[in-house]
Specification:
15 strands, Rossmann fold, 2 domains, binds 1,3-bisphosphoglyceric acid, binds adenosine-5'-diphosphate
Length: about 400
Amino acid sequence: MNKKTVRDIDVKGKRVIVRCDFNVPQDKEGNITDDRRIQGALPTIQYLIDNGAKVILMSHLGRPKEGYDEKYSLKPVADRLSQLLGREVKLAEDKEVVGENAINLTSEMKEGEIVLLENVRFIKTETKNDLEFAKKLASLADIFVNDAFGTAHRAHSSTAGIAEYLPAVAGFLIEKEISIMGKALNNPERPFVAILGGAKVSDKIGVINNLLDKVDGLIIGGGMAYTFMKAQGLEIGKSLLEEDKIDYAKEMLKKADEKGIKIYLPIDHVVAAEFKGDAESKVVEGNIPEDFMGLDIGPKSISLFSNALKDAKTIIWNGPMGVFEMPKFAVGTKSIAEALSKVEGTTIIGGGDSAAAVEQLGYADKMTHISTGGGASLEFLEGLELPGIAALNDK
Ligand SMILES: Nc1ncnc2c1ncn2[C@@H]1O[C@H](COP(=O)(O)OP(=O)(O)O)[C@@H](O)[C@H]1O
Ligand SMILES: O=C(OP(=O)(O)O)[C@H](O)COP(=O)(O)O
């Protein structure tokens, strides 16, 4: 990476604002169910503390739509960070993020102290890369460190805009992610297969165009599959659909066909009438009946996908194959994780939920790399420049 890192600057006595990706999965009560992303930020935070910096942390959590919403508060993250670091992490409880509390707490900091700002997405213009908000964030600090690999594909006020106002360097997590994935994928061993799933369909479907120039095979499952099934003229009932991406999906099927790249789609589905963990479910092949939704891939799809993975030498996986949070619909994701664990090659898992699934299922140590970024790792692997990294100072 040709960008400066925290090692290249003197942080002693300085107020250092660090963008982290603390967008962690939580259960209904708000308990953090996977703290991989928090753990991933610790080396940079610890380095800054050890070198006498005053550390101001910031992150988003989820996608709050209407400004402040307690449900999206970073309070649980502050508590987990305190536990993991063994020192107090004060949360600046301002609904407007850079408010009285943030200003007071950060102006009184001593070396080695840590303050966490509230969810930057409580400010609606954050995701528009609003420079006014970026300037406010910058006004709290002397140096900006970006260590939010999972959000590096977003050009937002806290990931990109802020770099216009402060010296801007990368943290260790970004450095590590780029180094590992760069090495594995510079010249990937083939066959190279990508697996896409999950629910952020409109976000991630766009990567397929570029991926088709890189991979030898593409497996599409999870919520991503139904838009493609629809494009093939199949019925998908009440399953997740991106209506305005059907034409794009058709184009992608055509492109893959022309290039001789196989796209694997599920041939059977575990369906239910309701999006509920205890909903009655059944397996159907081909079309999904009108009143049902696909919540997992079926047994024949599992075999099809597992076979396609058997001889692959490089695999990237992003997005679960079903609603794995509900045990009834976790079999597809679990089986694909198992298939990957047996592959003799490079396996890279990306995405908060995919990583959590692999971790929960006990396959984490069987994978080459579990990235803290889903969309970010996909865009990086496609060869795109990530705005949160592009904004940092060159070496
Ligand atoms: N068939 C499906 N219908 C609805 N949601 C699904 C389906 N398959 C997977 N999901 C959901 O996708 C979510 C993860 O999607 P996404 O955020 O894109 O993945 P990641 O975080 O791994 O990048 C999970 O919460 C899972 O329940
Ligand atoms: O969870 C994230 O992305 P991912 O689901 O692609 O891994 C990041 O925190 C980015 O969040 P966003 O997709 O709401 O910008």
